[in-house]
Design goal:
The structure holds two protein chains of two kinds.
Chain A (H helix, E strand, L loop, with lengths): L1 H12 L6 H11 L12 H9 L7 H6 L1 H22 L7 H11 L13 H18 L5 H47 L6 H4 L3 H37 L7 H26 L5
Helix pairs in contact in A: 1-2, 1-11, 2-5, 2-10, 2-11, 5-6, 5-7, 5-8, 7-8, 8-10, 10-11
Chain B lengths: L4 H30 L5 H27 L8 H20 L6 H20 L3 H19 L1
The chains are: A mainly alpha, B mainly alpha.
């Protein structure tokens, strides 16, 4: 469904005047706004383990990083809004300008990352966020566009790599939890009172299963959103000389549409559970 | 030092095999409970061991990328552990009945815990402990 919306949007953007590819890329980046809290849901399995009276020692560390992931997402979305504002500088102020400014101001990483995360990964993400914020700050003029895209591309790719890696790990942890829940349910169905049953989890198990499955879907959608944005931005970076040219813009839009479809398809394949 | 993507993939695969081993042991315990070959208490213990082993596998997923950058386990050691664990998984899949289910379930927990330790803090002693745990589990399976 999400993929169809993106494809429809790409189709309509192709009819827009020049710089449509920048606006399209910016719109793709802004789709990440819906996923600001997606890493908070790492807490699902922590709650479950707490309920099962077997607290996961990793949980306090995972929870410590959630505020930073919020800031990372704001930097991404704020940067996308800044691109949109720069591509449309017909007025001194517009909605994208306000969004970019507001998100840039709240995208600061507040705390050091927890020790649970790979320090090289978080260093790359932190540095990437700082670079994206410097792209957000300033006047939103079309003249800045090329320089900003050039200067921010590596930073954006580093941030998206960090997000992707965290998504992959949380998704695997979700799968592990789903297997545990399924096995707990079958154990309870033996008609006895195994440990989980005595702990009173029978009522909640299916609810947790639904929640974890929904979390996997949210992680997959987030992955599609950030990967498509990063790929489109990388295409922009490669074809900077074509920005503003209607024909080159159209070619770029076709490339972005193809990438979007490929990424969405591969992520969906990855989250499809294996046949029983 | 950056994460070596190949080693990371191998560790994730190893964690998956540990999960498979834990689930295979639980299946045997479930079958034995169903056919009343073991008591509820024994099953409860096996179930608890299963939960711990699954948690150790989950720890490996996190630690694999979160803490491994400085000292990722050597690829040859990883292959040894993976081959040994895959062999145990195959042995458990073939096993339909045992009189030693608690020895097996405890062996699975120990195996998952020692592999998690070898993955998160690689070293000769940690690797040796994981290999020893595998040998102990093999003995429990073969009776």
């Amino acid at each position: 469904m999400g993929g169809l919306v993106v494809m429809a949007w790409l189709g309509s953007a192709a009819c827009a005047p020049s710089l449509a590819s920048v606006r399209t890329t910016a719109t793709l980046g802004q789709q990440a706004a819906a996923f600001e809290g997606v890493f908070d849901l790492a807490a699902i399995h922590c709650r479950y383990m707490d309920d099962a009276r077997a607290p996961d020692p990793m949980c306090p560390q995972l929870q410590k990083d959630t505020a930073n992931w919020h800031a990372v997402n704001r930097a991404l979305v704020g940067y996308a809004a800044a691109l949109a504002a720069m591509a449309d500088d017909s007025t001194d102020r517009n909605e994208q300008t306000d969004i970019a400014t507001a998100l840039g101001a709240t995208a600061q990483l507040g705390q050091p990352w927890s020790a649970a995360l790979n320090p090289n990964l978080t260093a790359g993400v932190s540095q990437g966020v700082a670079t994206l914020i410097s792209g957000i700050v300033g006047v939103y003029r079309r003249e800045r566009l090329g320089e900003t895209i050039r200067a921010s591309n590596d930073a954006l790719q580093a941030v998206v790599r960090g997000i992707d890696e965290n998504i992959a790990l949380l998704d695997r942890a979700d799968l592990n939890l789903l297997a545990t829940i399924a096995d707990t349910i079958t154990s309870i169905q033996l008609g006895n009172s195994p440990k989980a049953d005595r702990d009173g989890l029978t009522i909640a198990l299916h609810a947790v299963e639904v929640e974890v499955t929904a979390h996997r879907a949210a992680l997959a959608s987030y992955k599609i959103a950030v990967d498509v944005f990063a790929k489109a931005h990388a295409q922009l970076r490669k074809k900077l000389s074509g920005l503003g040219d209607r024909t080159a813009d159209l070619e770029l839009l076709k490339l972005i549409a193809t990438d979007a479809a490929t990424i969405a398809k591969s992520v969906r394949t990855a989250i499809t559970p294996p046949a029983p | 030092m950056a994460i070596d993507p190949d080693s990371l993939t191998e560790i994730l695969q190893l964690a998956q095999i540990c999960e498979d081993v834990a689930r295979a042991a639980l299946r045997i315990a479930q079958d034995q409970l169903r056919t009343k070959l073991i008591t509820q208490d024994v099953f409860d213990q096996a179930f608890q061991d299963y939960g711990l082993a699954m948690q150790k596998a989950r720890d490996m997923y996190y630690q694999a990328s979160h803490s491994l950058t400085q000292q990722i386990i050597h690829a040859a050691d990883l292959k040894t552990l993976t081959d040994q664990t895959a062999e145990l998984k195959a042995s458990l899949a073939r096993l339909t009945r045992t009189e030693h289910i608690l020895a097996i379930s405890f062996g699975v927990v120990t195996l998952a815990a020692t592999i998690a330790a070898a993955v998160t803090a690689p070293g000769e002693a940690a690797l040796r402990a994981a290999v020893t745990a595998g040998t102990t589990l093999k003995t429990a399976i073969t009776g």
